[in-house]
């Protein structure tokens, strides 16, 4: 479990540091970037938020609050507190037209910065848990690597970056949005910003 938590955090840092991110959309306080590598599509949403970084960290690392701003989360419950910084959650998503509702079992690892310039980190990845096998009512989905990095700007503002490395299974959900106007990602980012502020 310690290795899983470490690799969860390391994978997010690695994704964030990759070269080749291309900006696809700019709003007032929100920028959307994408990175294509073979059949893996990653995106990054950068938000300027007017609250202190420790507060943003505490709000974003509690995934039971996620459904307050993310309409892709129907329900989210803690299955297991692995440690103070690592929890396993069960997430249910609403059904899409013609599809079964999706569900996820995810490990969320939160880390405070060790050095002043480092970001706060909330890393997310799918895990398997014997206690929660896939159910026929849901389509069990997988998150390869996702999460937040929160960079301090001043005592009362921060930059929140959300990353998601989309597996081929998630790409159809995103492709339509990215081809259109990144609308769903954009709306979710605006809701997230509103929730935080």
Automatic annotation (TrEMBL):
<feature type="domain" description="START">
    <location>
        <begin position="18"/>
        <end position="197"/>
    </location>
</feature>
<dbReference type="GO" id="GO:0008289">
    <property type="term" value="F:lipid binding"/>
</dbReference>
<dbReference type="InterPro" id="IPR051213">
    <property type="entry name" value="START_lipid_transfer"/>
</dbReference>
<dbReference type="Pfam" id="PF01852">
    <property type="entry name" value="START"/>
</dbReference>
<protein>
    <submittedName>
        <fullName>ACO12 thioesterase</fullName>
    </submittedName>
</protein>
<dbReference type="GO" id="GO:0005737">
    <property type="term" value="C:cytoplasm"/>
</dbReference>
<dbReference type="InterPro" id="IPR002913">
    <property type="entry name" value="START_lipid-bd_dom"/>
</dbReference>
<dbReference type="InterPro" id="IPR023393">
    <property type="entry name" value="START-like_dom_sf"/>
</dbReference>
């Amino acid at each position: 479990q310690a290795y899983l938590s470490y690799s969860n955090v390391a994978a997010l840092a690695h994704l964030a540091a990759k070269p080749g991110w291309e900006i696809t959309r700019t709003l007032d306080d929100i920028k959307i970037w994408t990175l294509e590598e073979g059949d893996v599509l990653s995106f990054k949403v950068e938000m300027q938020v007017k609250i202190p970084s420790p507060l943003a960290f505490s709000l974003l690392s509690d995934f039971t609050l996620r459904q307050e701003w993310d309409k892709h989360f129907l329900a989210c419950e803690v299955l297991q507190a692995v440690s103070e910084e690592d929890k396993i959650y069960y997430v249910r998503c609403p059904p899409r037209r013609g599809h079964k509702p999706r569900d996820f079992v995810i490990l969320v690892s939160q880390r405070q910065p060790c050095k002043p310039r480092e970001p706060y980190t909330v890393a997310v990845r799918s895990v398997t848990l014997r206690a929660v096998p896939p159910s026929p009512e849901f389509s069990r989905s997988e998150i390869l690597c996702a999460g937040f990095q929160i960079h301090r700007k001043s005592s009362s503002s921060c930059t929140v970056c959300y990353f998601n490395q989309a597996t081929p299974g998630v790409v159809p959900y995103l492709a339509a949005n990215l081809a259109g106007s990144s609308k769903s990602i954009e709306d979710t980012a605006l809701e997230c910003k509103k929730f935080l502020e």
